# Entry
Amino acid sequence: MIQFQYIRASTQKTAIETTAKDATAMFIAGGTNLVDLMKRGITTPQKLVDINNLPLKNIDASTGRIRIGALALNSAVAENKLVLDRQPLLAQALNAGASAQLRNMATVGGNMMQRTRCPYFYDTAMPCNKREPGSGCGALEGFNRMHAIFGFSDKCIAVNPSDMNVALVALDATVHIAGPKGNRTVPFINFHRLPGDLPQKDNNLEKGELITAVEIADNPFNKHVHYLKIRDRASYAFALVSVAAALHLDGNTIKGVRLAMGGVAHKPWRLTEAEKALVGKTVSEGTFRQAAEIAMQGAKGFKYNSFKLKMGPNAIVEALKTAAGIV
Amino acid sequence: MGFDLAGYHVPVKADVPDIHVVLIDKRDPIVNRMGAKGMGEIPLVGFTAAIANAVFHATGELIRELPLTPDKFL
# Structure
């Protein structure tokens, strides 16, 4: 058994200081991914800094935005009235993730910090550049059915498994971060990373930095939204492909749109070009099909995941149709 | 790839439709003294074929290889 020290932080300042100065220290909140990784010997922190007692659970809506504390539980966010009224896409995405038991433990910050991963990352007998930099990628020539079609590198083709992240990137959320050098904010789209030559780094958080909140500015996407998740079974399965779609409609005219995909890249994948192609157009299956084709430009499949090149655009069309209310 | 039941997908509650229970009210004195019948293996013979046929009816695709995963219908 691997020994580790456990500390319950009483203030944000001490939590950050403790974690920043110790290379082997990690924050723990719900622990739904970290404890898993520790049990398998993939992640081996020697010090766990429990942040559950920090006052970061609140969900409130001050001027023009919803602020969700990093320790708010996934289930609490999904059933929060402010979220349901103003950002229902986020609630839908959260409810599509994991299982009820996990959503009751997992926090918003923890959901963002869950590892981008694949079965080769989890199997310590296999090579994985993310787990052991330089050891190679087992998935590249292996069983890569669940893997990326966008933004991958020859070092890593894993996908980010979070559903919540797909909604947050679509909704242009902002991440609030506190660290040893002070506070900063990062647009959600810049929080997670593509693998490049450093697949071991999933995101741009520095050592000792702590996510304190996620903010979503008020937007007109509170009515015509849909999160579509396609998976091998109806619950507790990662997405083969997922789509977060939000439309701002004036009659049948698209005044604004947000579109993002999950299960296709190392980070939640925003479909900016497809969004541009939709603005000003009239709602129709044909319009959505054109946008889906634009969205898929640059996608490339591997031996076992090429089905995503078809499933992806189909899912985009279906999500947009459902969001628009076209049967 | 998979070494536990988290990665080996079996149906979960959300996958299972309403189940209709039929009671066969007849003693079977041969198998055991309780008069109960065993029904463990018999349904295993036909049910995958029945599901594959139901999926065929719904989609027009007859898949002859298990598991019936979404990628096989594209």
